[in-house]
Amino acid sequence: MPSYTNKAETFTPVTEDDEYIRAVLPDLATTVLMLSVVHITGRLDIIRKAPAAKLPLYSGDGTGGFTPEQKQAILDEAFAAISEWRDAGCPAPYHPTDAELHEMMSYLAGAPLDARYVPMLKEELGPDGDARQFAWDEPVDKEKLDAFPVLIIGAGMSGLLNGFRLKQAGIPFTIVEKNPEVGGTWYENRYPGCRVDVPSHCYSFSFLRNYKWPNQFSPQPVLNRYFKQFADTFGLRENIRFETEVLGARYDEQQAEWEVSLRGAQGKETLRARAVISAVGQLNKPSVPEIKGRDSFAGHQFHTARWQQDVELEGKRIAVIGTAATAVQLIPELAKVASHLTVFQRTPNWIIIHPEYRKEIGGAEEWALTHLPFYARWYRIMNYGWGIDGSPAHLKIDPNWPQDGLSVSAANEERRVRLTANIKAAIGEENTELLDKVIPKYPPFVKRPNPGDGGYYRALQQDNVELVTDGVEEIVSKGLIDSSGREHEFDIIVYATGFKAMDFLAPMEIRGVGGVNIKDYWGEDPGAYLGMTVPGFPNFYMMYGPGTNLGFNGNLIFNSECQTRYIMESFRHQILNDLPAIQVKESVYKDYSQRMEEALEGFTWSHGSTGNWYKNSRGKVIANSPWSLLDYWDWTRKPDFSEFDVVSLAAG
Q1: How far apart are CA 504 and CA 235, in angstroms?
Q2: pTM > 0.85
Q3: What gap in Å lies between CA 115 and CA 211, rounded to an integer?
Q4: Which tens digits make up the pLDDT trace of 307-333?
Q5: Are strands 240-241 and 245-252 parallel, antiparallel or unpaired?
Q6: For residue 446, how far is the Cα from the chain centroid?
Q7: In angstroms, what is the C-alpha Rg of the chain?
Q8: Is 177 found in the same domain as 269?
Q9: What's the number of domains the chain is made of?
Q10: Which of 54, 222, 262, 300 could pair with 65 as two cysteines, CB 3.0-4.6 Å apart?
Q11: Collapsing DSSP states into helix, strand and coil, what is residue 142?
Q12: In a 3-state reduction of DSSP, which class is residue 219?
């Protein structure tokens, strides 16, 4: 991992000969290549006279939808520009104006992009370095900083990011982590086939340049290594208390501090902090179904997030209960080694067959990412798919669309047809029995679609694999009995059954002003203003809190960078103005919650055709955000402190 620097991206000068350059260009993302050539030449006519790029078909689609003849003309122009630039000694690249960046972004998106995106995407592009770096405008007394200690719960992606920014600010902090290592979900999830399901080049911090991702969708060990190196590179380990669990936190009104209860190897203890940041996320508490007789099974059984690596899989009879995101990754791997694999499906899931799911990054692309100015930055932006950010038509319910239970709008129907065709192509039209089992009979995107390369469908057709759509009735010593009464014998049972997403902050007990338990305050409807803060809980912030799961576009690292900046700006305001504690106003919280609820009602996730993990027990969507990334970025750039009350010290 490169050392952090708040400077623009660097590149290695091109020295390769003409033959080499011509050979690598066809394998690059064509639209990204064009934008790099703009930086090389300073000429916007490169894209103005080129054929218009079409909307990307998938995240990471840089083909532009050009015909072979159009692409060749583009490659010829790119070759001429790069070879001339090389021969001139690779002078500094051109930095476009904001108006020109707007034009370039729209070209990449394949559609006119709202000009409001320019400052947001400029931050991501990073022409001037780390735009979200925290810096004081003038020196701040060390006493003021020391009087504002912060405790972070969790050393996953968000916890490490907050630690990094706090370290920049000189604010003292402690990260408490229950595991023996950093990484959060990328430490805990180690099941075979585990990998990130958004492109790696954007599932990474915006301020780290030139990290060499080996895959378009990198596997778990790579992600785990990334966060470990992040902690090492920026000296965060000295601030982390490993193998220590946070039991709860109580707000002390007399001192305007949080009293945090911990349990570690030496027993229980208490730490005090001015502010607490919960970075535990939504998907970290495994959900294991309450099945009759579960404790009677004589073999091995475990949840995918608690994978037992010492259990031998080769030649075993294995059951997998569940067919969602984790199972789609796991089942092809188990099918390679199990003597027999039985998959128990409750509800089929829509799977997006991504053409680059297992793509390796090397050769031509690695050369471009290293040598061509801003190619890596634009490549990152391309993978976000910004063009659809503000208009996810396929996710919106059209009240005038015939509600046949299969789709919710014309755009949603188009996606259903495309997804169905891809599934049929992966399985084969003739296998009607399997197709009938795996093609969902509810609209796409009611549940989160799962990306893959079709390996899941190939595995289901292997002779040693069986897909069972009967429910699991009972677990017995030798295996389980399904709802049809059939008994299955297994050596291993794997629960690919997801997480308790609605149990925010569990099992911790968080008590705010007046000793109110946050779970009692929430009841059935967990919520937070901007997903971060709750009335009556001063100086308490949540990363990836209620209403921040991204149902379309972007990824959680983008959201975390937005949230971290918002939290750091809150701390800046408090420290400079000697404010011990602030809390969001009840009226602001309620207004935001109402607007969010109304917005969510129009999305597929609220459709009643099937369940999903976004909803609470009453069927209300709690987890997801209905907002565009642009809106959320704008709202979190700096807190509006008129929306907060200053919390005075209580009388002793």
Answers
A1: 30
A2: yes
A3: 29
A4: 999 999 999 999 999 999 999 999 999
A5: unpaired
A6: 18
A7: 26
A8: yes
A9: 3
A10: 54
A11: helix
A12: strand
